[in-house]
Amino acid sequence: MAYIPVMTNSYRTSVFAASIAGSDPSAGAGLQIDLKTMNACGVWGMTVVTALTAQNANHVRGIVGVDPVFVQSQIKTLEEDFPISCYKTGMLGNAPIVRAVAKALPDAVPIVIDPVLISTRAYRLTDDSGAKALVERLIPRAAVVTPNIPEAEILSGITIMDAESMEEAACWFLDSGARAVVLKGGHATFRKGVDVFLDRDGTRLLSGNVYPFSDVHGSGCCFASAITAYIALGCPVFSAVKLAKEFVDMAIRYAVEYAPGRFTMNPGWREHREYMLKFVV
Ligand code: PXL
Fold it and tell me: Which of 146, 184, 221, 252 has the most ligand 1 atoms within 8 A of CB, as the residue to mutate?
């Protein structure tokens, strides 16, 4: 029997990031894709569960919210042991959970807020009072907030129908206290695929590739988790957003058709690409 030396890596040398979000058992979105993304981007991802969903590639059949006191306890317990460098919030579900998260999060740590309200298949994931609490309690603390167009419309009350109203909606997030916003252009009927990034230095437009699949499941979760990982690793917010766009572009290019005609993000695109080069080419 051979003696195999093992390289150990002290947890003190790891960089930690945590996602506070709902579970998607199909692993195409929610906590599961967040964890895969953070891992692929080089940080140790952690998860705080806010809700359980019963869902597959086509339907969300049920949602059960976690007791807000227990959500708070999950965050506080992690904080006792781990120097978490950046938090991400996703599906929070309702106002009591949003308030519990706002109370438990430490002041000094950057927070990336993906204001998840509606699923890719149009199921409501956070109710109206939850959306209101998000605006009052969490958006003012965001290092960056990453709404898509329907979410920005619900939160800001601004109808987005052209480039000008999109920039007006982006400004609304800064006026609400966020330090930066990426308003994603994937749902736009004008200037499709162009995101608006806004911080106190002004507006920057970020364009990306447009792919032949529509609504790839988990794209918003994957994007916000990649931003979270890069901020945890020390990137300034705008650089983290640009790197996350590159990561997401590849995760879409290697999207997995996990049910007929249903595509989901592939944060494991690097391994996938290596495998294709080794065995398929
Ligand atoms: O993609 C948004 C999203 C976020 N979080 C959970 C989800 C979904 C979409 O279905 O299920 C738990």
Answer: 221
State pLDDT tens for residues 252-271: 999 999 999 999 999 999 99
* Tens digit of each residue's pLDDT (9 = 90 or more) over 112-122: 999 999 987 78
Q: Is the CB of 68 under 6 A from ligand 1?
A: no
Q: Is 90 in the pocket of ligand 1 (CB under 6 A)?
A: yes
Residue nearest to ligand 1 atom 4, measured at CA: 30
What's the pTM? 0.95
> Ligand 1 mean position to 220 CA, how many Å?
9
Between the alpha carbon of residue 172 and those of residues 88, 149, 156, the distances in Å are 21, 13, 7
Q: Are strands 202-207 and 144-145 parallel, antiparallel or unpaired?
A: unpaired
Identity of the residue numbered 102: A
68, 96 contact by CB (below 8 A) = yes
In the chain, the domains with their CATH numbers are 11-277 (3.40.1190.20)
